[in-house]
Amino acid sequence: MTDAERLSAETPIEAVRARLASDEAAAALSVDDLLIASEIAYVSRDLVTSVRAMTLLVARAPESAPFHHRLAILLFESGDAAGAAASAALAVRHDPALEPAHDLLVQARLQAGDIEGAISAAEARATLCVPSQAGQLQMARLLVQANRVEEALQAVHSVNDGGAPTEESLLMEIELAYRSGDLHAASNAAARAARLWPDAAAPRDKLARILFELSHHGRAIPLLLRLREEQPDDASVCHLLAASYASMGKNRLALDAILEALRIDPGNGEYLYMAGALSNRLGERDQGILYLRQAVAAAPDKAEIHVELAHALAHANEDEEAVEVIDRASQLAPASTSVRDLRLFLLAKRSGREPVAPAGGSGLFPPMPRAPWRDRPPRPPSRLGAIGEQLLTQARVLTALVLRDFRHRTAQGRFGFLSLFIPQAINILTLGIVLSLFNGGMPPIGGHLFFFYATGVMPFYLFIHVIDHSQNLFQDNIGVLQVPVIARLDLVLAMALTELLIGFTVIVVTFGTFELISYGPRSDNHIEAVYATLAVWLFALGLGLISAVMNNLWRPWANGWMITQRFLYVASGVFFLPQSMPEWIREPLSWNPLLQCIEWFRTGFFRDYEPPWLDKSYILAVAFGTVLVGLILERALRRRMRTQ
Amino acid sequence: MIRLERVSKSYAVPGGRHVILDDVSFELPPLSRVGIFGVNGAGKSALLRLIAGSEMPDRGRIVREGRISFPVGFTGTFHPHLSARENVAFLARVYGMNHDEVSAWIEEFAELDRYFDMPVGTYSSGMFARIAVATSFAFDFDLYLVDEVIEVGDASFRRKCAAAFGERMHSASLILVSQHVETIRQYCNLGAVLHRGKLSDFTTIDEALETYERSLRAT
Which terms does the record give in the GO molecular function aspect (chain B) (predicted)? Predict the structure, then answer.
């Protein structure tokens, strides 16, 4: 065969291989020949020959960035990541704006295991080329690979914050924020993703799981319910739903959800454990024990399942088995103090079932009184029920304290119930007798001297009595405060209620008597006097609370009150009307809330009496304000109060 | 159920503060009878007051579930001007129990005859102790707090006290603070030691006693 015949019989790749076989033959090829040879070899998947041709080409044109780039591609495809990186670096050096060379450099260094090098290449790309979202995301991915989560988060955040985020970029931000421990940022990104792609399940799934971890169970539940519809075979969604319901105290719904998870994944120990614990909480102990036994079989190395089972068995008085189970738990978690405590308790319970003394008192005493709540059927705990129970206890405590106080007051002295009227009666009589010597025996208003003084003395005494009795209230009742259900506020409220009852009774009896003997003016506005009585009582309750707290901590308070009380007697209009005072005294006196209360009380008895300085809203503001200050003071100083 | 979560309590004393509880946490298991050993001034009574809620911790939280007694045998709840019957009626109202039934039981148990309707301020100290202990047993609590006193009076009355208290222990828990080993051994099935503000873990009585003896030697 002649040369010509041989050449015409060669395939192109064979021709290329022949021409590149020796350096001499290759030297004879032009730049274009080498380029074509490389491409022919590449198309024929002979990467070795293709690389050789391109290497020769690069040697001929060492300044050509496209040739270096092409060589880099060939080396990369042939598996020589380090060589590809070197060629791509040369390409970038000769043409810094060649974006594909930058990308290849990043890829090649990454493949060569040089993550930091890849990051610096990506940084160079961002500096030298037009910034792109894809580039920033690539940078973020590299930073993640380099375990530089915070920087990756920053990079992906700037992508999402700056332009239009993609689903992938937002999911990446969620993941990174979650990994860096910033659950709130993760939740915000997930919420944004869920808003942007309302039909996509992935963002919703992430958001639900993050909200769950943030304990925002109320927000997680609707998302989880939708996910459960969309992914009916995903047991983990049902599990999260159950845990969310359980955290909100909705144990029945939680049990339903975890049973759904068990339907999907029947042997899962975690789900069986939860089903058992929830059944126990709902009082379905037999079913709970059944689930927990299955959970122990499914996950025999989980100490917490054994502990829950031991608890359930102890409640069911299966003490022997409870001890066996807790023994296994203590083998699994020998360092756990809670397991050790429970074990000790169960051992003691098993050994201590026999009573300290025989039941029935061996005939030494009659059957012991039994609390009514012991005979009530157990009810599942409910928030409303607990509040109702608390209110009932509060009402019982207040009633008991009021009756005790009332009984104590009327039991003292010889006059019994009448003794409640003595201070007011003496005061009215004294005032009447002494002041009848002045002004021709005429009161400042109306024609009945004793009636007028009664309208001042009654509210004044109600006020004074509440505060007087509050001074040593906490010290005098230290013993009563040892009863756990009685609190300091109960004492103040009960004392004030007792005073209100007594004061109101004295007012009704006194003015009723005046009415019966037709002594005093006629009025159909008595309801104003009732309102005034309640207002002065509220004001006294607030000041009484403050006094009880202050006198407990600072004894000179009581002396200060004694002086103030005398001043108030003179300055509160008990035996005069403010209108009989000069303007310069009346103006400051009208700020006295007690004087205002007494004036209000009088409007209920003297038909045409409408003092212009009377401001009922001022009285109520002061009264409620004082109560508020008292409550805050008690709360703030509670820990410093004397208890012995 | 009682749970203490990182509770601390101290009192001002000349020259500083006396620490009673220092970051103490524990949970009392249901139907357990715990005896707490501790030297004088260790803070045993303060611990009971904290559990009862009559005193507040400086720091930390105390979670209470169920009905907790006032200290067994405590006379401070009695108003001296009122009769035993009236005082019992007060407590029965507070706890929502039938006061006729409770009064009748106490009247028979305490054996005070006509004194039952006289002001308790007129009682001798022995009578006062009897009525106080009988009142504590008459109320049906979930947790009884005992500061040393369970049995008072003569041998026969003490026997009655032990029997009544034992009967209550069928359906209740107990926290008993005492320096008397025998009292704790008689009534409790778990023990702990309060020493320098720290409460040891609940253990068997014998183990708690060993801890107590070690702390006494170290003092």
Answer: ATP binding
